[in-house]
Amino acid sequence: MHQLKPCVFLDRDGIVNKPPVGRYIERPEDFEILPEFLEALRLICERGYEAVIVTNQKGVSTGQVKPAALMEMHRVLIETVLRHNLRLLDIRISTTADDAHPDRKPNPGLLLTAAHEYGLDLHRSWMIGDNVRDIEAGRRAGCRTVFVGTDAPDTANHQVPNMSALVKFLRQHLDFV
Ligand SMILES: [Mg+2]
């Protein structure tokens, strides 16, 4: 029988890499992967979860971020993940500027389509992000949510102050599957 797998969905900017100084990370050389992300991903993999990055990159549709630059950032990310013997199932990107688009967080489309495509169990899955949009997308998809930062929305199931605290949190709260 086919068994649905739980997943940890992760926002990108501020979770995977240092957040942009301006609105967007436009240049691949400014894409700086956080060591705490790699630690968190190691735990996620060790505990038996899939990991999927879900990111709004509206800057692509406004022309501020070149698609080739975005591809290069994600190539570096995948290469780094592989070099650390870790596993990332997918990077799902919403490039639209349309807030009504189902894929643009806080809408849950990126999570729902990934779940459909890969057979993920959303109710045993987590969404981790540093913006209210991430928490809302996770909530609407039926996932448990963790807000990374100091001004968590009431709707977040959990809050940790920073990425180091997230690693500790996951060590304590992520069940083995
Ligand atoms: Mg973010």
Set out the fold topology.
Elements: E1 7-10, H1 35-46, E2 50-56, H2 59-62, H3 67-83, E3 90-94, H4 109-118, E4 126-129, H5 132-141, E5 144-148, E6 158-160, H6 163-173
Parallel strand pairs: 1-2, 1-4, 2-3, 4-5, 5-6
Bound molecules: magnesium ion.
Q: Your description of this structure?
A:
- The structure is a single chain.
- The chain is α/β, with parallel strands linked by helices and 177 residues long.
- The chain has a six-stranded parallel beta sheet with strand order 3-2-1-4-5-6.
- The chain has a single domain, classed as HAD superfamily/HAD-like (Rossmann fold), CATH 3.40.50.1000.
- It has helices spanning 35-46, 59-62, 67-83, 109-118, 132-141, 163-173, and strands spanning 7-10, 50-56, 90-94, 126-129, 144-148, 158-160.
- Helix 1 links the parallel strand 1 and strand 2.
- Helix 1 runs parallel beside helix 6 (163-173).
- It contains six helices and six strands.
- It is 36% helix and 16% strand.
- The protein is globular, with a radius of gyration of 15 Å.
- Bound molecules: magnesium ion.
- Magnesium ion binds at residues 11, 13-15, 129-131.
Low-confidence stretches: none
Return the CATH architecture: 3-Layer(aba) Sandwich
**Rg over C-alpha atoms, rounded to the nearest angstrom:** 15 Å
**What's the number of helices?**
6
CATH topology title: Rossmann fold
**C-alpha end-to-end distance:** 17 Å
The distinct bound ligands, ions and cofactors come out as: magnesium ion
The CATH superfamily bears the name HAD superfamily/HAD-like
**Shape field:** globular
CATH class: Alpha Beta
Give me the count of strands.
6
Q: Give the structural class.
A: alpha/beta
N-to-C SSE string, H for helix and E for strand: EHEHHEHEHEEH
**Helix coverage percent:** 25-40%
